[in-house]
Batch of 2 targets.
Target 1
Amino acid sequence: MTEEYESVDLVADDTVRNLAAAAVLAALTAALAQLSIPIPSVGVPFSLQPFGSFFAGLLLGPVWGGFAMALYLVAGTAGAPVFANGAAGIGQFGGRTGGFLVGFLLGAVVTGAITHRQVAPRSLDDISVPVQLVGLFAGLAVVYAVGVPWMAEVLGISVRAAAAAMAPFFPPDVVKVFVTVGVVEGGHLAIRE
Amino acid sequence: MLTYEPGDSVAHGLDPRGKLAVQFGLAITVFAYPTPAGFAVGGLVAVAALAAGRLSPVSVLRAYWVVFAFLAVGPILGGVALGDPWFRVGPALDSLRSVARVVPVVFVSAVYVRTTPVRETRAAIQRMVPGRVGRLFGVGVGLVFRFFPVVLGDLRAIRTAVRARGGERRPLRDRVRRILARGLQRSFLRADRLTLALRARCFAWNPTLPALRFRGRDYPVLALGLALACSPLFTLVPGRFIPVA
């Protein structure tokens, strides 16, 4: 019987903290994807899934926020029922909404890059609200820029038709950007500091 | 919902890396070839996977009916026209063709989910993605599996609490803001406790991995996966080396 002896190479405290935050935020994104609030007057449900991507970029910065979203996608690919309506598996990326899943990852990276402008996340107190809004809207634009052509390709329809199909979802998403800033600016997250 | 179930089928006994290779390879093949030949290959692989995992197609349809319902919308959206014919068959068929290629991928991934324990997937990811990034991914995916039900429970509890206090009568924005603020707060409390627990347990870059070993029957599966993944290159070969009259 062979035995190995090697020294334990501990993970740095900052990395442990960011890894834990990214994993929990990925789980939160997965949980938010399962909840949606029906709005009878508009006809489309108010999905909470995009908030996961917004928070990942805004709170964890470009690298760890992107890592959180990548964890979410890999966990879903590996079979956790984390996508909307409890779906899982690589087949989701070939589906109608697969582009939006990839868009959430890229969107979180863009939001993090614009708001934090460095790898390590800064405190949100040091980032003005307009910068946060610009970052979130850029992230949202990336989500749609990836999601709509992907959907057109999967369904074999024109980009214009896909954009028309997704148009009812856009105004609620704009509302979500403002709600996100309202939540992080509301002083509810002081516990994290 | 479809989740891992212990069993003794052929698919249960295979190495997760081979199974992942077939999944990715199939996805590449069906998207490169939206042709009858491509569909035939996809269908054959899907049927073989279902047989290897002893999984009934009906249970897959039942578990993934939402996905299939979404896919079915495609041809309808593609065919509807705002003009005289109202429904054009050509674009609808095009759309049906691109939707149909997703179906075998969904079936094969369902077999993977049913026959592969999460621990093995985690070990496979850790082996395939090199270096520290792969290790963080391996641990992170395990943590997401662990925390997903817990955080979902948190959110449901918050939603129930908001409802119990008459939250249904409040404006939508207010309701969402309450759910998110409490949800984030609880999640980050969990993250802080998790950080402490990881440090207390000497969370290291070099832990003991579960053993993954390729056996004889894993090699054909891996070969199939690689062949499928490289299939877009095959079309170039006959034209170049074997003159087609």
Target 2
Amino acid sequence: MTPGPPSNRGRAVLLCALLLAACQEALPTAESDDLVRSGVAIEVTMPARDFLDRVRVYGGYGRPAELGGGFIAHRYGGGAAGEEAGLEAATLLRFGRYPLFATVTDTAGTARPDSSLTFLSGRIVARFDTLGSVHEGPVTIRAHALAEPWDGLSASWRHAIDTVQHQVAWSAPGGGELRELGEVVWDPAAGDSVSIPVDSAQIAAWSDTTDLARGVRLAAGTPGVRLQVVTSLLRLRTLPSLNPDTIIQVLATTENTTFIFDPLPPPPAAGMRVGGVPAWRSVLDLDIPATLTGPPSLCAELACPVEITPDHLSYAGLRLTTRVPHPAFAPSDTISIDVRSVMVPAILPKSPLGESLTGVAGVVLAPEWFAPPGGHIVEVPVTGLVRDLLGDPGEGADPVSSTVALLSSFEPLSLEYASFVGLGETGAVAGEPELRLILNFSRGGS
Amino acid sequence: MRGRGGVGAVLLASLGLLSPAGGAAAQSFLGFRALGVPVEVGNGRQAGLGGVAIGLPGAFVSPTDPAAAARLLLPTVTASMQPSWGDFEFGDQGGTTRTTRFPLIAIGYPAYGRGVVTLSLAGHMERRWSGVRNRLVTLGDADVSVEDRFETDGGTSVARVGWSQPLGDLLSLGFSAGRYVGRLNQRFDRTLDSTYVGPDVRPYREDSQWSYSGYTFAAGFGFDPHELIHIGGAAEFSTALAENPGDETTGPESRYDVPPRFLAGASGRLTQRLLLAASAVYQDWSGAGGFPDGVLSGRNLGWGAGIEWRMVEREVRSIPLRIGYRRGAPPFRFEARDPLESAFSVGLGINFVEIEGQPLGWADIGLERVRRDSLPLAESFWRATVSLGISSS
């Protein structure tokens, strides 16, 4: 079978394709002042009174159990003169059901499941975040067994159970009655983990999963430290029935990991707070003007008042000035913050929030910015938000909320929080928020 | 009729892709402060003959020769495509240009044997170029580098309706009325250096649109004083060309005077296979109102000439070869010097079906090497004009 001539339709398609292929464009392009008349670019920094109506701070978002790790602190950030007791924090752990079987190599050398295990003893292995922890050398770590029923999600320094409808206080703040399991010294120079042995009697006691009092409390004995616990495990020494001459190690599941601490940071008397656990949010009511009557440099280039539209706005950044937070909660590692629209400001603090305006990474803040004396300026990009506020949402579209929340990128993110200068109650104060705008105006071309 | 089907497909494609403001020749910096550069509207035959605009023998539809369609026997459709590619230089800069446009589609329809109705859409002026400038702007206390880009794309076309009327065997007259149409899109882009401003910086863009309106009227004649000679002439008068801002564009309306244009041309058959043709175009823009000072050229006369040799001539088919040269006078300067345009051209035609010297299906290609000078700007480029036509009852 020989191929026949292309049909008329085929020719037409071919010709159309050739014609389209011939339509590639390359505009003559040259660099010349004559061809491009100048545009005007202006940077405007608005003081708070020109764009910010109100600042509110809300707390209580999330709880320590959601952090996935824990903190250990002892008299941390109390001040050199000892005028404050400082931060006390302990990590609480509850281990779950022990493994029902393990794969064991029997005396004949065959790997087989063994469901008849004898748990001899164990050890608690805790690993610390060496960058997120604050210490000045070896730290004494103390482990205690809890003896009072407690809730792994809501336990706090004062309450073993602290839900909305049910509160049970510890017999003594900080975990109630305790039974010492052991004490070890963690030397950061030697590694990032400690191992605390647990005897067979305690292992046997923890095997009763109906006992709501079972648990471990890890605390620090060295004053002036704050350690971040990344993981904590219970390793069990086990004697298998298939090979009684061998001891194997198995892991117990970790049912709850949380931490309790004291004192809770009080709401800020002034300024803004972002982060912490439970997390703090700062809510800002914006009122972006649609026209500008200054600064003089703007009016010198363009006739004031100047109307600004979304198209004119190339960049908007919310400039915040850092404050020194309470030393117990001062950042020791980078933290990232985010900006989101408050969708229904009327139901704050429970309003749903919009999408992140800063992306997944957020705005990363260095811990040294919050070290005394503070005063570092942080710029949070809000170009998209300000453009939306300046624009017309269009018929049928939802209006853009002018209320935004500053919050940590993930809630809760850390025990530490960021503090910024807020609005002055009676007048402008140094370091108040500012809005930096970069505006462009075209003078067209030839 | 497989062959005709293919030609029809090409015509259909040409119709679909026709750019109302199109003209490959027009992609230029010339006239960037005015209306741009004129679009060469001719078909492939005219391009190969040195751009002869009027005075060619035969019956065909031409926006520059209102009387040329007077002796059409059958409804006729013709369309042209113009790819061009070349380069430019001014100062120490240079670059390339490349584009393809469809500058002409025309239809002639004999009406009851008394005359011919003509319809055409043809390019008139085009402004297609972009400029870039890198500079520093002061933001706050810092100098920030920005790149500004200004791009302009568009131009004007003329939609014409006309009537061509034969008067006896020797004379024919033609009239047309047209409306200027077209649009101009301009875009200003500014990109700020994100290393200073921040990664969230958005490029600034401002789009503006302009539309054109106005009217043009033309009258012309064709005359055969001898069976081997054909002469033609035409005059074209236009109202002011209005440039109006679009709905979302702020700016004043502008009005540009379009001076009268006069065309004259003649052709003579030297031998049975050899044709000599020449034409001239006069249009004096120097006094036109509405333009910035120093933009208008003092030159007002353009001319072109060419020779056509029927390399193959059969009973119903012929293949002509063409060669030509022309000099044009674009109306707008680049800077202070009057522009000059010149082009050498060669061409090839295939008349698929020809009855009594009148082609019923044809394809022409004209290839020109064009050079424009308006110091310090110099542009040179190749341009091919491919036109297809078909006459069918």
